[in-house]
Design goal:
Largest sheet: none
Number of helices: 3
Oligomer: single chain
Shape: rod-shaped
Number of strands: 0
Low-confidence stretches: none
Helix content: over 70%
Radius of gyration: 45 Å
Strand content: under 5%
């Protein structure tokens, strides 16, 4: 006689199949959730990478603009130096006595006499009067400033 387990052995697979189905369903949901989470992570990483690329591109464009500005400023300084040198040479080469001789001999010009010279005495202090063109230029400057602000704001959100 054996003293083993005297309990009745249940051989109905109905409950085991339900448990297996539930486990498979839970695993499928976990896999689906894991896949969804992976997609979200990939999307977030892509957004971060794209924003970094745009920021780098903006900084590169800004740096290139600064280099171009420096280059143009150095060219301007060189041209201003060249211009002032040429003006100095021109002024040095002009002899006023030669110009006066040419004017009197070749063109028949004369120096003005004392009765031809008129002196004007203005008692009023200097006064500045704005013309319509100057008033319009103020409006244009304000409009240009607004346009510049608009371009700067648009430049922040776009690449050149």
């Amino acid at each position: 006689m054996g003293y083993g387990n005297l309990a009745y052995a249940w051989e109905d697979d109905r409950y085991e199949n339900e448990i297996k189905a539930k486990r498979q369903k839970i695993r499928a949901e976990q896999k689906k959730k894991l896949a969804h989470n992976r997609v979200l992570v990939v999307c977030y990483v892509m957004m971060i990478i794209l924003s970094a690329i745009f920021m780098i591109a903006k900084n590169v464009a800004e740096y290139e603009s600064e280099l171009e500005i420096k280059s143009l400023q150095s060219q301007l300084a060189e041209l201003e130096s060249y211009t002032s040198q040429k003006i100095f040479e021109l002024e040095e080469n002009i002899d006023l006595t030669t110009v006066e001789q040419e004017a009197t001999n070749r063109l028949g010009m004369q120096r003005p006499t004392k009765d031809q010279t008129v002196y004007v005495n203005i008692k009023q202090e200097d006064v500045c009067e704005l013309t319509a063109d100057e008033v319009e230029s103020v409006k244009n400057r304000v409009a240009n400033a607004a346009e510049g602000i608009k371009q700067n704001v648009l430049g922040i959100f776009s690449l050149k």
